[in-house]
Recover the amino acids of this structure.
């Protein structure tokens, strides 16, 4: 064998030289107990025959453990000793690989990569699964050529990555066939995604293993398995240490990638399920951020109690009846924030345990909308739940501005309706416009008296706020209704003409209604109804002025204008009959609205109109109004 190596050194590079080297390696491998690995491997490295280093080292390792005790963990210490003896031979392979990775003098970069891949291929052809697992870890952890493993038909790589990544238990190492590997990976990922076998917490190195597994599965075109593994990664549990933390934003990013692969695989059910998980995670993230803001605010209050330093717990300066409540609130928020950061939660758990418990009424409404309703019960019960949540949200934003200008308080309530309602207007059950209009009008009528406003000047401020609030309310309801002024006007007509406008069950909101005169509420309703009518007429007017309006479209617009003009006339009569000091201004506004509607009906004054049957009602209304005056 030594002579053959000498012949190989003397021979020029080519097939003859390769034959000498291979014959020499085969002879040395037949006598593994007497060869010197260090000397031979150095010689083979000089000859750039790196595959021979693998062959000789594995032969020596097998000779040191002829009973394969290293592959039998149940033997305990005997297995450990056998593994140590084998590793003394494996180290020569790792040194050669490391030299290829880092020593640029051995060969050029492409040659080093090819030589490294040749060593890996030779190792993969052996039956030494203990070495193959160790080599996978060495290559993946120490070189950029790890991606080269994905281009090889590497037996056991999928099982290794799934096992080292924490997706499957170590006991599954015996599953070596390709079919068994595929089944094990898909089953484990599906179980983790279903939370029947939760995944994690995982370290960053474990996550890197599973990410490499996904890249390998993509190379094989197994997109469904990729979606399952990414879904399991996105839904995994977290730990308290920095290496084990996964932010909710990162979870969503991983799950969005899983959705793309599920779509590629054509699994609509999995795609919809992952989409739902993402939506629920977004709710969880919003709740966590809202509670973090509340926690920071309470912590600032706590620092003020301690003179700007430390925690109020045990602080001698932190005294007073509010301290125990503050401590309890901070403790509850700390617990909730920890739970929200650990793992994804179910929608019902988020709703009952966090959104309801911490009075996040707007998020509660969005969650009910996403879930498709309030669960069981008849429509009246579900409607009452939605109305109560809206009442709580309006009260929250209204009372947060208790020390501000009255109009700002109305603005806060209107902003809540327009912002939240615009995302719910496609679902009329979630956006009870009539109920919201009534509640906003009750608030705008100057009903709350808890501020102690008693002087004439302060009362005048409330009156001015009520006069200006109608525009805000109508604008907010229109935004909530998707920009439909017609829908808002449709809401106000029954509110104005019914005698008893209060039809909802008793709630905390009712205190605002009972503290005010019904007459003021009626005037506020009339004022806002006039604003809604004007807004609807302006929309019709803008549509009528658009270029290209003719035929049936023009007839429909003029019909709407006629109906609105007639409604404005009737409402004006209703306003004047009420005989309130503020009604005269409302009637003048309705006159202006009716005039604008008539401009749509009669673009040219004095010109006969083919729509006279439509406008005759409006004309009679105008005449009746004039006679009434």
């Amino acid at each position: 064998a030594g002579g053959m190596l000498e012949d190989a050194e003397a021979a020029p590079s080519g097939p003859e030289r390769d034959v000498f080297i291979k014959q020499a390696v085969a002879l040395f491998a037949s006598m593994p107990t007497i060869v010197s690995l260090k000397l031979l491997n150095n010689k083979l490295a000089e000859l750039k025959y790196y595959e021979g280093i693998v062959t000789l080292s594995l032969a020596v390792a097998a000779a040191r453990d002829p009973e394969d005790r290293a592959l039998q963990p149940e033997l305990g210490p005997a297995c450990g000793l056998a593994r140590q003896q084998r590793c003394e031979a494996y180290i020569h392979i790792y040194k050669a690989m490391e030299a290829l990775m880092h020593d640029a003098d051995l060969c050029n970069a492409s040659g080093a990569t090819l030589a490294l891949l040749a060593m890996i291929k030779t190792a993969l052809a052996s039956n030494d699964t203990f070495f193959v697992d160790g080599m996978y870890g060495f290559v993946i952890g120490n070189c950029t050529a790890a991606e080269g493993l994905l281009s090889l038909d590497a037996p056991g790589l999928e099982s290794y990555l799934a096992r080292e990544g924490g997706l499957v238990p170590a006991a599954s190492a015996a599953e070596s066939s390709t079919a068994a590997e595929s089944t094990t990976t898909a089953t484990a990922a599906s179980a983790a995604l279903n939370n029947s076998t939760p995944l994690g917490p995982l370290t960053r190195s474990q996550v890197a293993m599973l990410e490499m597994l996904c890249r390998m599965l993509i190379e094989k075109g197994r997109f469904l398995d990729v979606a399952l593994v990414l879904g399991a990664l996105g839904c995994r549990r977290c730990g308290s240490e920095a290496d084990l933390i996964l932010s909710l934003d990162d979870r969503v990013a991983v799950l969005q990638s899983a959705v793309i692969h599920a779509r590629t695989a054509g699994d609509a059910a999995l795609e919809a399920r992952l989409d739902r998980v993402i939506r629920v995670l977004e709710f969880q993230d919003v709740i966590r951020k809202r509670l973090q803001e509340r926690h920071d605010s309470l912590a600032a209050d706590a620092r003020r109690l301690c003179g700007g330093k430390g925690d109020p717990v045990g602080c001698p300066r932190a005294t007073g009846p509010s301290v125990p409540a503050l401590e309890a609130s901070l403790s509850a928020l700390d617990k909730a924030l920890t739970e929200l950061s650990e793992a994804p939660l179910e929608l019902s758990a988020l709703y009952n345990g966090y959104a309801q418990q911490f009075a996040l009424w707007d998020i509660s409404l969005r969650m009910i909308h996403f879930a498709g309703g309030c669960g069981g019960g008849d429509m009246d019960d579900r409607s009452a739940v939605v109305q109560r949540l809206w009442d709580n949200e309006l009260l929250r934003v209204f009372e947060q501005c208790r020390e501000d200008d009255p109009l700002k308080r109305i603005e806060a309530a209107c902003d809540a309706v327009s912002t939240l309602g615009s995302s719910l207007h496609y679902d009329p059950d979630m956006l009870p416009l009539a109920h919201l209009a009534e509640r906003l009008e009750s608030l705008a009528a100057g009903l709350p008296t808890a501020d102690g406003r008693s002087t004439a000047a302060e009362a005048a401020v409330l009156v001015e706020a009520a006069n200006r609030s109608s525009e805000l309310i109508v604008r907010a309801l229109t935004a909530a209704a998707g920009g439909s002024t017609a829908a808002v006007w449709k809401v106000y007509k029954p509110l104005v003409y019914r005698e008893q406008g209060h039809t909802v069950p008793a709630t905390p909101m009712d205190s605002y209604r009972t503290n005010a005169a019904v007459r003021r509420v009626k005037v506020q309703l009339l004022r806002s109804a006039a604003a809604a009518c004007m807004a609807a007429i302006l929309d019709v007017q803008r549509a009528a002025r658009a270029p290209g309006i003719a035929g049936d479209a023009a007839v429909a617009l003029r019909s709407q204008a006629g109906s609105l003009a007639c409604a404005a006339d009737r409402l004006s009569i209703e306003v004047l009959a009420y005989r309130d000091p503020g009604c005269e201004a409302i009637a003048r506004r309705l006159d202006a609205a009716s005039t604008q509607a008539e401009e749509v009906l009669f673009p040219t004054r004095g010109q006969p109109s083919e729509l006279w049957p439509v406008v005759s009602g409006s004309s009679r209304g105008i005449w009746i109004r004039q006679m009434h005056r």
User: Anything to note?
Assistant: The CA atoms of residues 175 and 181 lie 6 Å apart.
